[in-house]
Amino acid sequence: MTQELDLWFDPTKCLIAGKWVSPEGGEDLPLFNPSSGEQIGSIARGTKADIDAAVAAADAAWRGEWGKVTAVERGRILFRLGQLVLQRVEHLARIEAIDVGKPLKQARADAVALARYLEFYGGAADKLHGETIPYLDGYTVYTLREPHGVTGHIVPWNYPMQIIGRSVGAALATGNACVLKPAEDACLTALAFADLARQAGLPDGALNVVPGLGSEAGAALCTHPGVHHVSFTGSVATGVQVQAAAARNVVPVTLELGGKSPQLVFDDADLDAALPFLVNAGIQNAGQTCSASSRILVHRSIHDQVVERMATRYTSLQVGPALADLDVGPLISGKQKSIVSGFLDKGNDLSKAAEGLLKEAPEGGNYIKPTLFADVSADHSLARDEIFGPVQVIIPFDEEDEAVAIANGTDYGLVASIWSRDGARQMRLARKIRSGQVFINNYGAGGGVELPFGGMGKSGHGREKGFEALYGFTTLKTVAAYHG
Ligand code: NAD
Description:
This protein folds into 2 domains: 14-257 and 462-478, Aldehyde Dehydrogenase, Chain A, domain 1, CATH 3.40.605.10; 262-448, Aldehyde Dehydrogenase, Chain A, domain 2. The protein has 16 helices and 24 strands. It has helices spanning 48-63, 65-68, 71-87, 89-100, 104-124, 160-173, 188-199, 214-223, 236-249, 271-283, 303-315, 334-346, 381-384, 400-407, 423-432, 468-472, and strands at 14-16, 19-21, 28-32, 39-44, 132-133, 139-147, 150-154, 177-181, 207-209, 229-233, 253-256, 262-265, 295-299, 318-319, 351-355, 357-358, 371-374, 391-397, 412-413, 415-419, 437-440, 456-457, 460-461, 474-482. A 7-stranded mixed sheet has the order 15-17-18-13-12-20-21, with helices on both faces. A 6-stranded mixed sheet has the order 9-8-7-10-11-23, sandwiched between helices. The chain is globular. The structure holds nicotinamide-adenine-dinucleotide.
């Protein structure tokens, strides 16, 4: 294992029932550095046997010690865990930067967001109430919010810390016991997090982590009859499989899938304010963000002006190794690079407005120059399909209704933003746009741990983040007492 990572745990092990154990199959998977393409170590290749053990451990924890921990104490544990994360922000950020290939400052923001999720859900743990319901004479009726029991968490490689914070954080706050299957391409901070959780006093078995392949450990987790809720973040294709598997066990799923999120820029927009958001929302984490804004819809009267200003920013974008901490890092893998290159080839018939520059980017790294296309038709593949790379298209429109139709014209509906000074238009469009989140004169509101997040259409269903997530990680029981 490379010394640069300076790990205090062994990533070739799984954490099950509070113990670091080798996977039953005794096999490892290679760990690659996206910035260099080099193998820098190995991780555990967990399989069905390990998932079985992890689910059994979670079940025992939920029915045993962890199930008896009060809401107040769960909150305290999450606060302590948040403090441990904050103390280790630099170290966690470095691990994530090397593992995922994201520039250090972005990885640092992820670590701080992870701590913030733990603070938020730690604070919320004892504030989730049931209600009393007026009913027939002689009855007292009330509801209880109870944990599902064992929750499965399948996480992708693009924002491991943030996604673990929002799903595992909310699940633990509500008293569930978790089995976490991180992505095979980036599992190190999941293991680090689980070890910190032990240090924070989380009882054994309340959080178990089994790294491994999606087709092995992932499939075993979402099909396991002992799992009572599945939280999945990843691609649409896998989400469909996860939902089908959960249906067979009749358990609820939360699906956080892809997006093709638009920003609508009207002729009365404050362009100085909009410009940083227009570009950053597309290139953050090299565009490998579910909520990346990959479509910029611009009123035709200002199209050329917006193209010119975005192009100026693009030509100054520097692309290089994660630890060089430039604007854009490498993509996660060679596979992802070839997918994005394929989209760029499809864009050969388009007008390329600008691209960024490679800076000391090693040969073997998975680098792609950020690319901006102008005057793109809304029905082009690059304007409809999720690319998951640093590629943005600018689509001109003439009328407000046309802009809404284009915004709603893909399979997805995750995030959108409206740039306009017209208050009535802001309100009108916020209702008309089909999207889980709509931002007005901003994009993303700086992350927003407090803000419910999730999709419409093929972007998924269910909500994570904010207080809303706590409802998803609990089930409601109605108690009707007849006392005469
Ligand atoms: P993916 O679906 O291939 O993998 C996601 C996770 O699912 C990984 O842990 C993987 O091991 C696991 N997995 C793969 N096959 C599985 C199976 N058959 N059963 C169970 N688990 C399986 O997606 P990806 O390539 O890692 O991530 C990219 C996609 O994720 C993009 O489409 C992106 O938009 C989406 N994403 C969405 C959000 C969101 O919050 N909406 C966040 C991040 C990524």
